[in-house]
Amino acid sequence: MEKILRIFTKESGSINQAALLLGSFTLLSQILALFRDRAMAHFIGPSPSLDAYYAAFRVPDLIFISIASLASITVIIPFIVAKMSGEQVTESARKYLNDVFTVFFALMVSVALIAFIIMPNLVSFIAPGFTPLYQAKVILLSRIMLFSPILLGLSNLFGAVTQLFRKFFIYSLSPIFYNLGIIIGVLFLYPIFGIAGLALGVVLGALLHFGVQALASHSSGFTPRFSFSINFRDIRQVAITSLPRTLGLAFNNIALIIIIALASFLKSGSISVFNFSFNLQSVPLNIIGVSYAVAAFPALAKSFGSGKTEEFKKHLKGAARAIVFWSLPVIFLFIVLRAQIVRVILGSGSFSWEDTRLVAACLAIFSVSVLAQGMITLLSRSYYAAGNTRRPLIINFLCSLSIIILSYVFIYVFKNVTVFRYFMESLLKVEGIPGTEVLMLPLAYSAGTILNFILHLIFIKKDFMSEELFITKTFFQSLGASFVLGLVSYLSLNALSPVFGTTTFLGTTFLGIFFQGLISGVMGVLAATAVLYLLQNEELRDLLKALRTKFWRAKVLAPSQEEL
């Protein structure tokens, strides 16, 4: 047992080791999330009911992001540490956590109650294109889900204690239990309660998430209690520190709310198609971008705080090169194998072949911005580490606004310019399928995200990296290898078509589609690895070194729930 516990308390030797460990835990959670989506695709499929379910998330998610991030792990931990005596829990630290717990709980419950009352008005804004019947369903589901931000918010608060005492294994279990709750909702509660069973599953998942963190916090000597003599100066300091980051997260969520509102006017099932593809592209983002950004943050903050500018640049460039190294191959792989990926993960039951083609097309568009999304998580944290929260806040606001504007513009152009519509449908192989207007939503999101990345990169170079090469060498090496990966995978798909093609018996089975994608992907990855080896790629060498030094013994600071 002691050996198991030591795995999660040893210090990391490098950002690569920490990122690989965090990525491994994230992968487990993402696999469960994919199983969750497969269950929904199988039992419900893209439909007005599933659209209502996904739309119902928007208000609870906005509440969670807007309030829970005010007491996030990265903000709370330094304040708690300052009030502790080494590893010993002091009354001052307990009092501080009790104050935060009391104010946070009161604020979250108050906002949830207000949202419960005005939900009909909010839903008319979130899903204006729904019929009154499905708007009523969104109201019901949203009201049930309002328990979720309260529970997840408290769990996030307790998670600071879990992290503080280095109980990383326990912390990593929480997202897994959250997805388990939703899966229980799909498999067992949906047949009994209908669509409301899905919302109950979300609440169950949030309760399990909270329970794990609460038990871990209690075992560490922190059992938060309501405080009646609150030190509001400490609370105000936490809120002021968190506010810019909170607003940045809220801007992106508001952009998603507008996208969902627009999708409610499109063909039924469009919101489901958008969310399925968004969730799929989030897998590499969470495993690569978030993992490296979170792993790099402590080193960035420490080096900048110590005035070691060159060390700060070194950590930033190292993490950026790693994100480029992993993300570019994913982009090419997801674009080439999009149909196989979607069909294997989601293709069963109520999820038709037309649904597969639409989600695959959306996934291809989202995939183009995977590198940009991963880099944004790192570059924005670089500013946070340097104590500059204003720059990423302004960039996030402008780019969220651009996503909203582009969503309107692209849908209008797609509907009114025949040449553009024909070009997009032909390029993504969705000719003759109804509801292709939904493709404009991921296109707007990706375009706005790439703009966000470009602006971050410009200002990072101006503020920290003037007259220095940043990621140029790695970018072109990885781009060349990724092109080879895409080409070899595409040729392998065609070569395997006589055996696994959609017109053959094997091609219509799960195993046939799975092996066609797997073999093609492996061939592409091997070819890309050979190219990188011949180019003596530094990131490939670092990866092999991290694997040899047992990355699973690293200690990492996991991301807050609102970041996932």
List how many beta strands DSSP finds. Answer: 0
Name the helicity range: over 70%
| Strand content range | under 5%
Contiguous low-pLDDT stretches (5 residues minimum) are: 1-13
Keywords: Cell membrane, Cell shape, Cell wall biogenesis/degradation, Membrane, Peptidoglycan synthesis, Transmembrane, Transmembrane helix, Transport
Protein name: Lipid II flippase
Membrane topology: Multi-pass membrane protein
Pfam families: MurJ
Report what the structure shows.
It contains 22 helices and no strands. With 564 residues, it is mainly α. It has a domain of 198 residues. Helix 15 runs parallel beside helix 19. The longest helix is centred in the first third of the chain and has 36 residues. The protein is globular, with a radius of gyration of 23 Å. This is Lipid II flippase. One of its GO terms (biological process) is peptidoglycan biosynthetic process. It is found in: Cell membrane.
In summary, what is this structure?
By secondary structure, the protein is mainly α. 79% of the residues lie in helices and 0% in strands.
Which descriptors apply to this entry?
single chain; 564 residues; mainly alpha; 79% helix; globular
SSE layout and pairings?
Layout: H1 2-7, H2 15-43, H3 48-56, H4 58-68, H5 73-82, H6 91-126, H7 132-145, H8 147-164, H9 168-193, H10 196-219, H11 232-263, H12 270-305, H13 309-336, H14 338-346, H15 353-367, H16 370-385, H17 390-416, H18 418-427, H19 440-463, H20 472-500, H21 510-534, H22 538-548
Helix pairs in contact: 2-9, 2-12, 3-7, 3-12, 4-6, 4-8, 4-11, 5-8, 6-7, 6-8, 6-11, 7-10, 8-10, 9-10, 11-17, 12-13, 12-15, 12-16, 13-15, 13-16, 13-20, 14-15, 14-21, 15-19, 16-19, 17-19, 20-21
